[in-house]
Amino acid sequence: MEDLRTSEVCLYGAPLSTFTRAIAMALHSQRVPFHQVGCLPHSEEACKHHPLGFIPVLAHQRCPGEEPFEVYESAAIARYLDTVIFPAARAPSAPSLRSADQDPRTNARIDTIASLAADHLFRRLEFGVVKPRLALEQQSASTGGDHEALEAEVRAKVQPGLEALEPVLALLESLLGGGGGEGYFVGDDVTWADLFVYPPLADLRATPEGDAVLPRYPRLAAWAARMEQREEARRTYDGTVASQRQPKQSPAKY
């Protein structure tokens, strides 16, 4: 079993990255000491550790003097953490991010929701809504554009993205577990499913579009509010879209 007293864990990736945040939240949830090197996708630093320059990358050095073992792609990092690092690190109060008894159907459900978040939620939300809004806001700030004209342009730009996103939000709403809307996606505590869904949804909540559409999904909105209060969410807040957009603007009308 891994001896965390002598090993070193390093996470490469910018806090702004939702995938980096998911892995960082997992490390915090299991009380694993690590240090983070902030780097953007395709930066010189990122390209040193991922052949295509993507983030995050996890580097694990088991003992001083050993060449660090690097793992890239978020699903592979999650699996490595589950099998190598977390078994040695888990504090008595820390939740298991997979089925505690390794039930294959429970783990399949966790993996399904995490995959939905990593593919459909991330792509439709970030590229269809959040990034277009941020790009237009940045462009307007540099040119001194009119606020009302900007909002009209943003609404027109992100409307197709919102329409594509809403079926995913509806699906996540239907998959959210817990009696009375008080639980998490799979059971009564956080799993990888929650950790992959939360970072992109937190980005949406930081925009006027989130204020406009999330009330249509009350279970999902309540879950996101609970996640926001968790220690691992608070410890990974700085540098995120939400941290850069406070205070928020008024909700958009869609």
Automatic annotation (TrEMBL):
It comes from Acanthamoeba castellanii (strain ATCC 30010 / Neff). Keywords: Transferase. Belongs to the GST superfamily. It comes from the Eukaryota. This is Glutathione Stransferase, C-terminal domain containing protein. Residues 233-254 are annotated as: Disordered. Residues 103-250 form the GST C-terminal domain. Residues 7-89 form the GST N-terminal domain. The lineage of its organism: Eukaryota, Amoebozoa, Discosea, Longamoebia, Centramoebida. CDD domains: GST_C_family. One of its GO terms (molecular function) is transferase activity. It holds the Pfam family GST_N_3. Residues 241-254 have a biased composition (Polar residues).
